[in-house]
Amino acid sequence: MLAVGAEAPHSTFTAHDGSTVRVRDLRGRWVLVWWYPKAATPG
């Protein structure tokens, strides 16, 4: 778990439009990362 104010780990994500987003390219900007850990699971 990350502590409040900690730097995000180096990661790459696929955006809603299919483009690739690297966390390091967003340094200094406000970012909201939202995911559903169980979105593809039953129940």
- Which bin fits the share of residues in helices? under 10%
| Poorly predicted ranges | none
Number of DSSP strands? 2
Number of helices: 0
**Biggest β-sheet description:** 2 strands, antiparallel
End-to-end separation: 25 Å
Structure description:
The structure is a single chain. With 43 residues, this protein is mainly β. It contains no helices and 2 strands. Strands 1-2 form a two-stranded antiparallel ribbon. A hairpin with a 5-residue loop joins strand 1 and strand 2 (20-22). The mean pLDDT is 81.
Summarize this structure briefly.
The protein has 43 residues and is mostly beta strands. Helix content is 0%, strand content 14%. Strands 1-2 form a two-stranded antiparallel sheet.
Key traits:
43 residues; 2 strands; mainly beta; two-stranded antiparallel ribbon
